Amino acid sequence: MEINENPLNTQSPAPGFVNLFRVEDVFNLARANSLWPLTFGLACCAIELMAGGAARFDMDRFGFGVFRPSPRQADLMIVAGTISRKMVPCIKTLYDQMPSPKYVIALGGCATAGGPFKFPGQYGILEGIDKIIPVNVYVPGCPPRPEALIAGIMALQKQIKSGKTQGVMTPAVVHDSQDNHPAEYKNAISRVEFRQPKAGPPQAEKPPTPTPTAPTPENKG
Amino acid sequence: MNSKHKTRNSKHVFCHLNLVICHYFVICALSFVIKTMLSNPILQEALRIILYGTLVVLFISVNALFLVWMERRVSARIQLRRGPIHVGWQGLLQTAADAIKLLSKELVLPKDVDKFLYVLAPVLVFAPILSAFIVLPLGPHIIIRDLNVGFLFVFSLTNISFIGIFIAGWSSNNKYALLGSMRAVAQNISYEIPLLLSTMGVVIAAQSLKMSDLVSAQSKNWFIVTQPVAFLIFLCASLAEANRAPFDIPEAESELVAGFHTEYSGMRFALFFLGEYTAIFVSSAIAATLFLGGWRGPFMAGPFWLLLKIYGLVLVIMWIRWTFPRLRSDQLMNFAWKVLIPFAIVNVFVTALVITLQKYFA
Amino acid sequence: MPAVLEKNIKSWLLEVIKPQEFNEKNLKSSGILFEAVVAQNQIRDVAKEFLSQGYFLESLTAVDFAECFEVVYHFNHWDSTKRSCVKILVPKDLPAAPSISSIYKSANWFEREIFEFFGITFVDHPNLKRLLLPESSQIFPLLKSFKGEPAGGDVLQSLKLIEEDRQGFEITYPRSISRHKEDYYLNLGPQHPSTHGVLRVLLHLSGERVLDAEPVIGYSHRHHEKMMEIQTYLACWPNFGRLDYVGAMSYNMGYAILIEKAMGLEPPPRVEYIRVLTTELNRIASHLLWMGTFLLDLGAFTPFFYCFDDREKILDMLEMVTGERLTYDYFRFGGLDKDIPADMIPAVKKFIPEFKKRLRDYDKLITKNIIFKHRTRGIGVLTKETAIAYGVTGPSLRASGIPLDLRRQEPYSIYKELDFEIPTRQEGDVFARFSVRVREMEESLKIVAQVIDKMPAGKITLGKLPKNVPKGETYSAVEAARGSFGIYLVSDGSLNPYRMKLRTPSFSNLNALIDVLPGCLVSDVVAILGSIDIVLPEIDR
Description:
The structure holds three protein chains of three kinds.
Chain A: H1 23-33, H2 44-53, E1 76-80, E2 83-84, H3 88-97, E3 103-107, H4 108-113, E4 125-126, E5 137-139, H5 146-162, H6 191-195, H7 215-219
Parallel strand pairs in A: 1-3, 3-5
Antiparallel strand pairs in A: 2-4
Helix pairs in contact in A: 1-5, 2-5
Chain B: H1 2-39, H2 41-78, H3 94-103, H4 115-126, H5 150-171, H6 175-206, H7 211-216, H8 223-226, H9 228-241, H10 253-256, H11 266-291, H12 303-321, H13 329-361
Chain C: H1 2-17, E1 21-24, H2 27-30, E2 34-38, H3 43-52, E3 55-64, E4 68-77, E5 84-91, E6 96-98, H4 107-118, E7 121-123, H5 153-166, E8 183-188, E9 200-206, E10 209-216, H6 224-230, H7 237-243, H8 248-263, H9 269-298, H10 302-322, E11 331-332, E12 335-336, H11 344-367, H12 370-376, H13 384-390, H14 395-398, H15 406-409, H16 430-454, E13 472-480, E14 483-491, E15 499-503, H17 505-511, H18 513-516, H19 522-532, H20 536-540
Parallel strand pairs in C: 2-5, 6-7
Antiparallel strand pairs in C: 1-2, 3-4, 4-5, 8-9, 9-10, 11-12, 13-14, 14-15
């Protein structure tokens, strides 16, 4: 008894003559090749972003050079620079205004995890944009070179083409090596003591940490 | 097993035969309908409209794709860089990727917008520009409809697109959009006058408003030779009508976020974009027809020369965009009212005088 | 003449005011001529006298001691360096002081900053609100009793701010009253296509005309001053590179000169020449970036790419030396991090004629362009009086007719031996500021050419130095690309600075816009903002 499991006799994809794509694949290919970033620079990394769009590095070659000023028309938010807490509501509003599908690249150390401005007890910045919006690609550096940015965007393109564009968020408190080095906040000194005249020439002031060799000959350089 | 096989086979044969007979009847019916249609003049006309409409829309889509690519490559060349070169051969598929991406974007309807107007605005901006193709002479007798009011028909319809811009800014419920659309309306009203006045000189010289007459009147000299001032005024005014730099204050990126289309996303934004590039094409087409001799050429006159002239003018328009900074809105108005309009009026008078004297003494 | 004036203010202080403490200081080693501690009720008269003698308020800050606060006023003269320090003591149990914002307009923002960082209230201040931190913030960060926030506090506060924003937490600055119902408020920023960074300008508009403008800053506050109090002096170097990232070498220079002043160090001559070489190259790069973005604001897209192309050539040269493209920390105390490589001088020699030719191209395409002239001539005039009232420095001041350049007035490094001019113009409009900066690029190129000819050989460090700066107060200022960058250091002799106040030029330059913007159109606002040349992180620190 011949059991025909494939009564319509189709093959998917048909070899050679007709190649059938899913519509979603075509869309992903188009999205990857036509990323429109939002003009959004916060600090130093913004200059490298601009240099990336300028003549020497030219991001427009790959298709992601059309910077749109309005979030409604952009689909890529490159968070370039330190995120101060005052700025957070603006970033969230801009992110919400972007239509899906939207992607986020955290450019630089500050947008990744606070960067050089993260110290124990800091009061002004948000340590990484992934604490409030999902991030697709992290580009480390301080600031990262424009080539690094282009590599980051290409990594995003790969993500989009594969269809796996779920961003990543990190928890509010991340334990890292800074936990072992708490910041030493000093107390206020007395003004009276401070205003007392110095006891000798400045060079004679011994540093608190003892050095193995005598300080005086070395100071003369 | 053999019998089952035979039954299946015969079932198949019967199905196939059925299909073939149905197809035959359908084809017969269709051909009868088409024959009657083709003999009836009204239905003939309807078919023609559908055909031309489809061709125009197809041409515009491909043309807009090409023009956006051209803009990016031309700007890159002027700016010491390469522009899109990786997506497709020489980057030609870049705009296609942009268009498909825009198609697949989420269509956002912001909360407090006037829904009907918000959705209507992009259509109003884009659709009237298509009217230009109806009266564009492509060759010696190739024209969709040779209206006796010719290009006036185009300009009167393209004014509707500025109502569209105003509606876009108003319905967006956004201060930037409103500012942008106010500026656009003021700009359009101011530049409509020198646009039409500059063409009056050509009309007086050719003694007709029909597009085909205007092209035939250029058999000896193109009108750019006899009316150079009018050509320059027409070029400036059409740049302003299309909101192109240096007159792009309504969409001034550095000042107003994105001007009147701040709140538009996805395909609606694509329509604005499409409208802008089609407007450039249409302005160049009319300039080429009125001043550069239309489809005339040294040999093989026809659409090829027209397209060559149009794209040459488009290149000049793009070149101008990347060379000059932007004019402020009041300087823009000053330029229109205090410079272009007086020159255009003087041009009309001088042309009329010359033509009358020619007739008198010739 | 200057000596007479100096005697006047000093003698006036000693005779009329009779300060509680008075010390003569050495200008070279401490940066000031004298310091005087006066009573709180006398500070307004002192300020009035300084203003009448032509001084501007260079810096105003506070220091937190155990018994009291010290509010420190630095006045300087634009004619020659006559920096004087006046202090008042504010008790801790009643932290209030008189405001001098009615006398010096620049004190308005300085006092707001002191209020939000120390909690000192200024009596009769018109608008004592927080400046850099969010309005709903409750902390006074620069107090020594503030020991930081717990981990995770950043996300908590961010979520709270997002919630406040959702509820329509609207900030209004009703300094000018709406005259008719068609007036409206328009926000320019903080996300702004014109690439200045995160600046927000609240405009009160009538149609397209500006009635009033209020810059709102703090969106880039990165707590440099608090960080420096818990870091060692050496660890503070990266901070200076990131204050003004576009012209970071001048900031390196400022810090190096401060510490060398405080410790009495003299760097070897080769170090000085290399420092000047890299600083001037960086100044050209900074002006190029400014020019590109300024013209982008005006709508000319192409010069941006040409300017960045030239800038990349300079960045290549600086990268040869430092390894960095942008945020340099190349200088060290009394020396440099590493010596310049052998192929740098030939690269510089090759660059100079190429750049001269490019400058001529810019002149033809931009300066002589009629649309550019229409957009910039007569727009945004900054008068001399406004400039002095707000303490404006740098090319913006020189374009208003005051030839104040710290490289000439208070020479540091080897600038005394170099031959260069100070470009000045009288009109004070956008075009004047533009042409002053273009001429400054030419002058910097001249300096670079002289330096590479005269560069001596030698060592580039002073060897091992003590890690702490001796106890005392020092003020040192350098001419950065945007104006006079001053640092006021209070050192208690330990490994960390006790208080480091950064007096950044863009802070005062932006402050002056409050008086310049009313009356112009929206398009002009963008042009004027661009011409002032601000970098937000140095305003917000």
